[in-house]
User: Fold this.
Amino acid sequence: MGIRKNLKKLNLLAIALVSLYLVIGVPKPAYAMHVMEGFLPVGWAAFWWVVSAPFIILGFVSLTRITKEKPQLKLLLGLAGAFAFVLSALKIPSVTGSCSHPTGTGLGAVLFGPLSMSVLGTLVLLFQALLLAHGGLTTLGANAFSMAIAGPFAAFWIYQLTMKISGKQRLAIFLAAALANLLTYIITSGQLALAFPAEVGGVMASFAKFAGIFAITQIPLAISEGLLTVLVWNWLQSYNPQELELLNLIKREHQNETIKSV
Assistant:
């Protein structure tokens, strides 16, 4: 039993390391992604830093509590971060100064809650800015609010609501991941619209323009992300049920096996 448990942990670690290698180790051309460095006016960049900071601070408190109370979940935390890192690095140039890509934050939000994902998502954005020229440091607050805060909160609430209404967990996972992806880009469109209102029609006209351009690539990406997240969830249920049981996301399914072995 101990050997099997160690193999599961090694599986999680291997996936995280391979994922990071594929993104960092394989050369890729750099495009403008998330909201790129220096694109936002200084006032708006500072505003989004101020708005994001409380969520990130509370997220650190949440992560500290989780790792102290359940240290065996650290590898799963790493997997959630790696999943977001890999998916959000798959970029398709879209709106000038930004791009379309999956976010990968829905899985972590369902597993550990939106506050924890606010920290993991911000760290993902920080590493991408430093290592991949993906996003930026001045725009980190804005990118964190859209991808690491608004998206995960939406994913968490959508998951909880869908479970209450239907009780279908895979449907809840799919909707959480897909709709969190879409909300991230609605927020990004709003951020760009506020910073760059149209001469005719102002903020609303600018928002409609940005959101319309994003929708062309983002809607199919959101559906794809939802399906991929369900596949990863199925893998976790098959090979790491103990961690999901600790998080009260699945019921103990192996009680019968234990009784039979006794």
